[in-house]
Each structure stands twice: as C-alpha cells, then as structure tokens.
Fold each of these.
Amino acid sequence: MVSERLKQLKRFLANDEGTVGAEYAAMLALIALTCVVPAFALGDWMFGTFGGIVEALPEIQ
C-alpha cells in the first residue's frame, strides 16, 4: 500500500504537462505589464501631444 502511494507520488511529481500552461500564463502576464505600464507612465505626455495635433488639424484644412 505504501509502495503504491510512493509510485503515485513519483508519477505526480514527474508529470510536467501543466507546467507549459503556467509558463505561458506567466509570459502573457509579463508581456501585458510591459505594454500597460509604459502607457500609464506616458499617458499624460501622449494625451498632450495628440491633443495638440487634434487641435491643430482644423487650422490646417
């Protein structure tokens, strides 16, 4: 009985199928943070720059 439990435990620890999903989830989270953090950090600057462009457009026509 104990040896069967040990065999099950060894199989469970050796099984790494779920690891791939966890790695993809971690990479996706890091990519999302890489995109979102700079957008928030540069948000005011971008709003001011593009706001100035939008305000200048009617004058160009």
Amino acid sequence: MKLYILIYSTIYKKCCYLLVNIMNYSSSFILEFCLLFLITYIFQIIAIESKTIVIEPIDTIAISIGIIVIIINDMKKRLITGITPTGNITLGNYAGAIKPMVEAQDDNEVVIFSADLHGITTGNVNGENLEKNTINTIALYLASGIDPSKSTIFLQSEIKEHTELSYLITCHLTYGELSRMTQYKDKSSKFKMSNGTEKVPAGLLFYPSLMAADILLYDADIVPVGKDQKQHIELTRDVANRINKKYGNIFTVPSPMISKSNSSKIMSLTDPTKKMSKSDSDIQGTIFLLDNERDVRKKIKSAITDSENSIHYDPENKPGVSNLIEIIKLLSGKSYEQIEKEFVGKHYGHLKDEVANEVVLFLNNIQQKHKEILESNLIDKVLDDGYKKVKPLAQDKILELKNSIGFYNRNKG
C-alpha cells in the first residue's frame, strides 16, 4: 500500500506541469492519454478486486496524466547551439539560425550560449568590440523571438568547465584528426605572410575540441548545424564514443540537425549564387537586422534579377528573383504559389517594393524590441538565470569524467 501511495504522490506533483502545457501537444498525445487511462482503469479494477487499495476515479486520472508527463519529459530533446558575437546579425542569419531556434523552443529543451571564447579563435580581438558585440547579439536573439522562459541562454566564458573539458577532449584526439578538418584547412591558408611563411593561430586547430566540449558538457541530443559544420559534429561523435568506450557511458552522443531543405536560405542581393554573409566585402548584398529603412530600400532596389521580367520561383535559372521571393516567404509565411499569383502581370519593380515593405516592417519590429531590451536589465537577468541552470550540469559532468579517468578527488564522500 505504501508503494501505491508513493507512486500516486509523485505523479500527482507532475500533473500541474501537464495542465499548464497540455495545449502544446498534438492529437497523438490525446490518443496516448486515452490508452494509458484505459490501462490505469484496468489497474484500478484489479486493485479493488484484490483489496490492495481502493483507487478513486480522480486518482486514476492523476496517475494517467502523471505517466504521460514522464513519457513526454523523456521525449523532449536537449538542443544546443552557440552564437559567435562577431558583429551585426544578417537576415540570412535570422533565416538559417534564429528562426529555427524560435520554432524549436516549444517542443525541445533549447540551450543557447554566446560563444565568446570562439570569438577570439584567431587572437585578433578588440576587447571593447567583443563586449559590445556580445550584448548586441544576445539582445537581437531575444528581440527575434527567443523566449528566456522556454530557452536557456548563458555566456560560454562564464562556465570554466568548457575550457577544462576542451583540454580533456584534446588529449583523446590526434593532430591528424584536427588538421584534417576542412574549415581548418580553408582558414589556415589565409594566414600566410608575404614571404611565404605561415603564422596560423593555434586556436584554429583546437577549435573543434572546444566545440565538442560545448556540446558534450550538457549531454545535448541535437545540434543544429550548417553543412560546413557537419564534419565537426562527426568528430564530436567520434570522440564521445571513444571516451565512452574507454571510461564508461559518460557522454550522450549528439545528432546533427541539418537545415531542412524547405527552410529559407537567403542569398546575397548582389550575387544570388552565394549565401548572404556578414563578412561579405560588398555590404550592398547584405541586409543587417539593424539597417535603417533608407539603406534597406536602397539595397533591395539594387538587387540583381534578370532580363525576363517574369516573376516565378526557379532558383537554378532565376536565382535573383527567387531570392527576393524567398525573402517574402520567410517574412510573410506565404507559399511560393501564393506569391507568384500575387505578381502575375507585374514587373520586378513591384516585386522589389513588396520585398522592401516586408523587410522594413520586420526590421522595425525587431529594432524596437532590441532598443527596449538594451534599455532594460533583461540581458543580465537572462544570463544570471542561464548560469544558475547550466553551471551545476557542467560541474557534474566534469566531475564524472575526471573520476572515471582516475584523477585524485580530495572531496570524495
């Protein structure tokens, strides 16, 4: 009987959580509830017949709901992503990185950190800019829809376990594995001096070790990445499996979440064959989230199209026009077909005007929220809350690994 009461008491406490969040779940959730309710009803009959304990109908409901809560909590995945504070955020960054996180935070445990340690990888750092960019980037993420009540946000550099785990991971990797990373090869080639000698920052070589630590420290299930980062996730999985095999089941082996093929990919306005980028030497091809209306309209008016004057979505043959349609789709939620119908018989000038109107409306909303956030103490509060949530997780994981490796722990017991 004590066991029944204990189970009931534990489950009852979890019911409140479900009642608050029940609207977030689909019809399959309702079906699962009905099945579990039937099971617990049978359990009630057996219990009464055996005179073990009398369970009231309300108890049956509570037990059913509790079981479902436990199942749902187990189904929720921890998703982690880092944002490098290197400057202003573009519309392309919003489409590829921020918007997917906004959509994911309802159904996943989203963890976002400002990757300020990655921001000094090459050693070329302006301290004043780093601080300013960190604050600015977090404010833009919050203004763009990241909800601190649903997502955890913290500073990478405030959690010292990131660098400690990075070293421990590095000791389980080889120079060959690190030097074979495509990004290392590409970026290191840019650090050749005029006399032909190389001066490659070591941070580039060890970047994957820190990235692996960022992920494994929190037992992340999912890591959203672009195709250029997939190799780093594969290395993270390899080293996690290697350490698990050697010391026991220490780390969760993460899975990459590559951007969906139907998600918006915003290209440069001046060269629609390449992605919109904050590092593009031609800033006329890039829309920044803090651009003013005058600059936005000027950039869009000068956007590359073609000579056909036919408005339809065809990325291969009409990349410029398709990119403008993609922007409307991203910001309005309309389908390609709906957008094409609206512009039947119209010229590219009409299309560019509509794109500019959509972008200006979107940016005005973002910039107003951004301003309000910077004028408040919200960022510090969010970062304080995030630190309190992740610091214990990081400490426990490091301690678990160090104990398994065999470090002398003077605080045991």
Amino acid sequence: MKKLIYTLFIATAMFAGGCGIQNGDETMHPLFKKASGAKKDGDYKLAEECYNKLLQVKYESPKTHLRLAGLYDEQLNQPLMAYYHYGQFLKFAPNSPEAANVKKWQAAALKKFYIKTRKKFSDPDDAKQLQVELDAASEKIKTSETRKKLLMRYITQLKSHIGKINESASKLQTERDRLQADYEIQREKLKKQQQEIIDQNIELKANKEEIDASQQALATKNTEEEIKHLIESRNNLKEQLLTKEKELQNLKLDFENLRRMFYERNQDSDNEYRPTKSIAEPISMEKPLLDASSAMEAPRQSPKKSLVKQEVKSSAETSKTNSIQKQDKPVILTQAVKYTVRHGDTLTGISRRFYGTSRLYKLIFDANRNILQTEFSLRPGQLLTIPPLKK
C-alpha cells in the first residue's frame, strides 16, 4: 500500500511540473512510440516508464494519460493510478468522443480499488491507517495545485513584464530613428550654409582684389577725397569679413552641438563626449583677408582680442552662479534654477545633469525659447532657466 501511495505522489509531482508546456502531436513522439511497442511486446514496466517520461516532457497529453491509465487498469493491476490518469484525460480532453466510456472506466477502476483495498485490509486499524495515508496524499495534491497556480501567476506576470520591455524597446528604436533623421537633415542644411559662406568668401576675395587694383590706380593721384573713400570701403569690407567669420564660427558650434546631442541622446550614458573631426570642414578664416597694417589707416585694437577679453570677463562674472554645476549626481529640483552655459555643453548633457536622463532636453528648450533659436544653438555665457519636473 505504501508503494501505491508513493506512486500516487510521483504522479502528482509530474502533474505539477508538466504544466505550461506547449501541446503537440504526442503520438509522434519517440517515447510514445517506444511505450506502444513495449506494451505490444509485453514489457509493461518499460511501457510505464516511457509513458511517465513523456508526461514529464509534455504533461498535457490526453492520449498518453489514456494509454497509461489502461496499462495500470488492465496489465499492472493498479486501479488507483488508473483512476487518476482517467481523470487527467477527462481534464485535458473533456469533449473527446471517448469521454463517456472513460468516465465508466474511471468509475470501474475506483470500484476495483475499493474492493481490492477492502479485501486486503479487513482490520479496522489498517483501514484507518489507509485513510490517513489517503488524506495525506490528497493534501499533497492540493499543495501541488496551489503551487501550480502560483507558478502560472508568476508566468503571467513575467509575460506582462516582457511585453512592457518590448514596448519600451520599440519606442526607443522609434526615437532613435527620428533623431537620426533630424541629424541628417540638419547636417545637410549646415553643409549648404557652409558652401554659401565659402562662395561669399570667394566673392569678398574678388572684391578685395578689385579694391587693391583701385588703390594702386589711385596711388598716383593726390586727391584726399578719393583716398578717404577707399579707406572707408576697406573698413566696410573688413567689418563684413568679421561678420562672416562670426557666422561661420556659430555654424561650427551649431554643427558640433547637434552631433553631441545626437550621440548623448543615442547612448544615454555618463561617458564623456569626445568630439571628432567635422565631416565637411570649412575653409580657414583665422587670418584676415585684408592687410591690417596698411599705411593708409592708423592701427587699432584687434576685434578678436576684445572678444577674448569679453569672454574671460563673462566667465569670471558668471562663475559665482554655477555652484550647482559641480554636482555629479542629478539634482532633485523643487523650483526653477539658473544655469550658465559652459564650453562643450549641450541640452542633452544639461538634461542628464539635472534630471538624470538626456530625454528631457525639450523641457529646457521650451523654457528658454526667448534665448535659444534652435535646440543646438547653445553659446558659452548664456543664462538658462532649468524648470522643475512636474510630479
């Protein structure tokens, strides 16, 4: 009897471990074929072993349960196990054409088990012991059912979590594709503007050559009015050259900021950005195209030196307001704060510094539209407003 109860426990454990396996054509499985052949050859123990192994792999197999129940009922004379596997067949195939007959066979197996047990245990004490063992077996079956429900619930939660992860990955891929497209568009625009500036430089060089020729022609004349007019024309051309140089530097900064924003947004990490060489470098405009030491005009202070002094003065004045910039960890903002742009800053980098992620850079851009024309037109010395996150 103890051996019978132990077999029942094994069947219960197999039931709890086989849940959730996908269904298929169980009759084509090698273990099913091997068990059928062993049953025909009279090797019932081998057939029982093969059927049980198949149930460990694919528990929701109604035909396997039915064959195993018949083996226990007819050949191995284990009516209790036959009753159990008849029940599993009815559970997994309730609408089968054989369901009516299986119910009868199940009732007969239960009756056979009752008669067999009654004959074997006529002593009331043995009957009580058998009842205790049956109650323990039933309790273990209930425990297995509870565990099965918990496992199914956990599997459902895992599937839901995986679905959310896949949805987030899809959104991130869409955002990356959008940023890549924006990057390509802005790069093409900057290339066109760069080419326009190069053409303008060529035109300015031609004008300079024309003015130089005019200066040589007017050098033979002693009229003060013509000399004064040439000096004014040259000064105007110098101012135009300085203006174009500033525009070119601004375009370089815009292009570099765009590349930084793209890589910071794509990687979303705290690694330091290392700028690479531009794809299309503009022509060098570090040297002025006109000779500033001409004898026709008195020397004056270089505009670049004055710009450098202004930048040094601006950085010294704003260093007091940037104490929050030294923090490495994201700041939990409860109210809007001011931030002075430094060299190499981008909106995505500032967003990561204050919010912990680069994806919220549009919040900073929307709060500073009165200062920023585009998302990548940051300049050192600009004073930005950093808004707090809404709860």
Amino acid sequence: MGKVAVVVGGSLGDEGKGKVTAYVLERYNVGHEVLCIRSSGGTNTGATVWRRKGAEDWVKIQIHMLPVGVFLPGGKHGYIGNGVYLNLDILEEELKLMHQVADGHPLNKVFISKYAHVVTKQCLEEDARKEAKQKLGSTKNGVSVAAGKKYRYEGTTLEKFLSKPGSGHIKTVFDTFYVEVVDPYEFFTEIVEPEDWNIVIEGTQGVNLDVNHGNYPYVSSGSFSTYGLLDGVGYALSPDEVYMCLKAYNSYFGPMRMKSDFDDDEFRQFAGEYGTTTGRPRNLSWLDTADVRRAAQLIQPTHLVVNHFDSLNWFAENGREWRLWVDGEMSMGFSDKAWVNSKLTRQGAMFLDALKDAAKVRKIFIGTGPKSSDIIEYR
C-alpha cells in the first residue's frame, strides 16, 4: 500500500519545508511510484532544495511555483492542485530550470489541476497598488487579488485561461515540458492510484499565516494547516504521516510584531535571514511553547522537525543567550551550545524536549544544515 505524508509549516513560513519534503521523498522513493504535490499558495512563497550532482557536489535550487520533488532525481513526479495560484511566467521559467538540472536524465512529469487559478497581469498591478496603501507586508505577487477574484466568482481558472485567444504560448510550453492539465478526480482515479503510489504534499507558508487561523490581517491568502493543504489537492487523501516544521527561532516579514521578538543584525547576516521571494530582511523572534502547542492542534503532527538547530550555537560562540519562551513568558535562557561534535548538549536536549512535549509527537528530528541529508532523528 502507498503512503501519504503532509509537510506543514508550524509557524510563520520559512521553516525549511522544502528540505523536509525532499527528505520524506527520499524515504518514500522505494518500491512505489512517487508524487510530490503543491496544493497551496503561489509565487508569494519560496522553497530551497539541494540536488545531488555526482558523488560530492550539490546544486542549490530556489523555486516558487513547482513542487520541489520534480527537481530531484529518481522519477518523482509533480502535481499542482486546485488551491495554487499560478503565475504562468514564473512557471515557464521553472519548467526550463527543471529541464536544465535534469542534465540529460528523463524529465519528471508535471500535472496541473485545471481548477487552479491564474494570477493575471491585472492581479499583479492591483496588488502593488493595494500594498502601497495598506502596507500589510504583501510580496506583491498578485496572490491576494487572485484569491479575492476567486471567491467573488471573477477569477480565471487554468482551464478557462487555456480556452482564450492568446494562450498559444503557454500551451506550447506545456507540450515542450510534458505538462498535462488534468481533472483532479480523473487524475487520482485513472493516472495515479493512491493505494499504489507514495504521495508527499509540500506545504507552503505556515499555520500562523493561515487566513482562518493566523493573526489577521497579517496573514496570507490560503489555508496552510494539514487539512487546508489536503483540501487544496482537489481529491480526498488521508495522511499516514504529518511533519510539522519549525525553525529553532521564528523569522517573518511585515509590520506585525511578536512579544518574543529580538533584533540582532549580526545573527541575521550569519543565518541568512532574508526572504527567498523578496530578499527583504526578516524579523526575528524566539519560539514559544504556547504557539507550538496551538499550531500542533491545527496540524495534528506525527513528527516534528526543528531546522536551523545548529544556528543556535552562534549565540554561545558570541557570548549571548538563546531562548525559549514557555507559555508566553521568557523563562528559559541557554548560554551553552546546542550541538557539539554531532551530538546534543544537555541544554540542546532540554530545548527539544520542551518542544516535543508541546507538540505531542512520536518523533522529533533536527536540521543541522541546508540539505535533506542534514536531517537527523533525535528520538
């Protein structure tokens, strides 16, 4: 029987979901066909994945539209679901990149739901005007405008777009890169049979940016909890595993501020805390077990992954404390390193145990570098 996994952002985005998706795909790429699904968001969110090139070399790939799985070797096909907002120009660029990194190997196949909505030029222009007035921290990628049109019954589905004059170019692009536009029901009953395939749903954003559950109006245009991501597929799937992703601290954009914020330009430079999509410097805050507990209730995780865990060492190396807030209070400060010689320190273990208790998960993993091979099971 095939398995279904969902990779979910447990905070404000930028939790390393692309890396975790690649990790799960590698585990799932045994004995079954593999499908990587993108079911939410648009080019307002970005992912970074590393593809192995030869025995020693790796290629860093930053993407905004396609599922990360199609950039990995080994026949990992991709599907873009109903809940995604398509920027067709960026999609074309990434299809070309997919061809480039394949380096002579067969291309992974890409399928797109005909019900996904298209971000038009008008959406981009309107989003830029709106952000100039409201200043909510929009990436100005047109997603919020396209979402508004969708729910006002004024949107443009991919099926509708392709039926219009002037769509010949993107049709040619789809033909060139073996992209197939599909009806979700027919796709999952006639092409992909979930009981025979391993499926990984790659989340975008994070639950604290969910339009239904986040700090409104400082949210994004979608639902990013486990069940929101499942809904965006366009076909009912039941998850066997749910990976909740965090960083060892929070980073985020926009005018919103959090009680556990800290500002440290030196650490921001060290950790590369600038947006994949925008290049803007990110705001920084410490994790809070109260937030982790609330996010876990929305996500219902089986696994917790804490990325950038090794970055905590920077604070000890520079004579500063790193922190974990507990139930809304700044009550845990750490002065030692979290990770030494590929082993947890006592303070690193205390930090992870507090997060594991808050999330109520069976297993916890730590990310100690940018690649999927840098993910290590703790317990």
